[in-house]
DNA sequence: CGTGGCGTTGAGAAGGATCAACTTACGTGG
DNA sequence: CCACGTAAGTTGATCCTTCTCAACGCCACG
């Protein structure tokens, strides 16, 4: 039998975490087995159906969550009901604004999702202990900021056709977190209405532009929710 | 004579920092006098004129900078020249994306600005030493993310009239970093062209909406670059 | 007294929104 | 298994907001 070594490998990776999407790429990658084991005492896995609300704008946050599978839709609404989707989160992102008392967005499961719920105090105490963890969380925030700014260009300066192409390109390159290569055939995680709210367009305009891309042979619409992109470079050209 | 105490107050706040806008509110607020003194060995103050480029998109970053006075414009351009302003930075923000090898945006002085230039290695070594500093930087990134998402709603879902009102409201509430109260009379840090690029509108549309707000008595246009808002609540109502 | 940069105003064109009809997919219950 | 109902998506016609193009005003500067 191997002697017990006095280092971080005293502890083994918890069984639940061994096959977890967030174990290495997500924030848990910054934790050693000991910390991970401690954290798992207060976490729990849940499955949410598409459409379920996970967090409401201006409501207190009681927990964070690692996205393990599926897509989360982040949105904001104006008083009169106009809605804007301000971001999508894919595995292995952390859901929830760190250190904020209340949410600044509404979070909703866009597809069926698996989450690893982490109580707010559990994560926050770990954050103050581990600079490596806080660093990971900061790097995610910075990446989200870059993505938000990229999308501002799409919202402010692109035509409807370019917007829809940009959306399809985004999904093709983000839908599978395990795969480094973009997908050529995938399910859309959003309805036409949500796509419109993401792009600042109406459902009708989204639909027309999708039909146009199909007519031009840039995408195939297998099913309303499933598209296939034979040549990603050609789609990229349509993004403006 | 007081005995020297073995704590952080062994060191005095550097003279240059004593009257600095970033000393308490900005990232330097996370540093003790010792760290601050060490940092000032490699920093230098510079003044930049409106229009000077501080950082180019996709170019290597050699330094960060604290904004001490004035407004920085962050923008992105598409290949064909279409431009989008993706954010404004006011004192005492930190300019420059932490830990990134190259910039993801173009940064330009919108007004005359004073900066405290910090070499990249100097800040980054401090960041790895001080969890408190990294925490501040993360909090700024999270605030910027919130602001970017708020602006996405403006870009995606508001009318031209609401966009221009939102811009004026943003400036009124951000232009003076020392003042808790919004300003009722202020200089616009952006030209009409830049305002258009911030709002995803043309110069002409910005101009027409400004004239309309003036005709409706919501704002007074003292000078092209100086406006006065007698009733901020009325302006707020126009923001949608 | 030009000249050029910046801003405003007007007329016409165009892109996307709105309103409305129709299609497709899918679940439910007879 | 099919009739029905409903939700989601598509397509067409028309309207309206914003863009485009053009002329003009203001002001600083040589």
TrEMBL record, chains A, B:
InterPro entries: cNMP-bd_dom, cNMP-bd_dom_sf, Env_Response_Regulators, HTH_CRP, RmlC-like_jellyroll, Tscrpt_reg_HTH_Crp-type_CS, WH-like_DNA-bd_sf, WH_DNA-bd_sf. It holds the Pfam family cNMP_binding. It comes from Devosia ureilytica. Transmembrane segments: none annotated. The keyword Transcription applies. It comes from the Bacteria. Residues 158-233 form the HTH crp-type domain. GO terms for cellular component: cytosol. SMART domains: cNMP, HTH_CRP. This is Crp/Fnr family transcriptional regulator. GO terms for molecular function: DNA binding; DNA-binding transcription factor activity. The keyword DNA-binding applies. Keywords: DNA-binding, Transcription, Transcription regulation.
């Amino acid at each position: 039998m191997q002697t017990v070594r006095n280092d971080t490998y005293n502890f083994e990776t918890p069984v639940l975490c061994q096959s977890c999407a967030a174990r290495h790429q997500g924030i848990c990658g910054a934790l050693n087995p000991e910390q991970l084991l401690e954290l798992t005492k207060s976490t729990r896995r849940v499955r949410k159906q598409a459409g379920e609300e996970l967090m409401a704008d201006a409501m207190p946050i009681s927990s964070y969550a690692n996205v393990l599978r599926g897509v989360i839709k982040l949105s904001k609404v104006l008083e009169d009901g106009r809605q804007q989707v301000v971001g999508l989160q894919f595995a292995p992102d952390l859901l929830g604004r760190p250190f904020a008392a209340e949410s600044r967005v509404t979070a909703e499961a866009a597809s069926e999702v698996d989450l690893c719920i982490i109580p707010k105090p559990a994560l926050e105490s770990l954050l103050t202990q581990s600079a490596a963890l806080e660093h990971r969380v900061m790097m995610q925030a910075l990446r989200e900021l870059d993505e938000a700014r990229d999308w501002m260009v799409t919202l402010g300066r692109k035509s409807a056709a370019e917007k829809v192409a940009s959306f399809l390109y985004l999904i093709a390159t983000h839908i599978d977190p395990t795969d480094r290569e973009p997908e050529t055939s995938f399910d859309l995680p959003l309805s036409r209405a949500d796509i419109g709210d993401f792009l600042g367009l109406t459902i009708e305009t989204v639909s027309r532009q999708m039909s146009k891309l199909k007519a031009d042979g840039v995408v195939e619409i297998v099913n309303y929710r499933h598209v296939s992109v034979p040549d990603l470079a050609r789609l990229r050209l349509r993004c403006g």
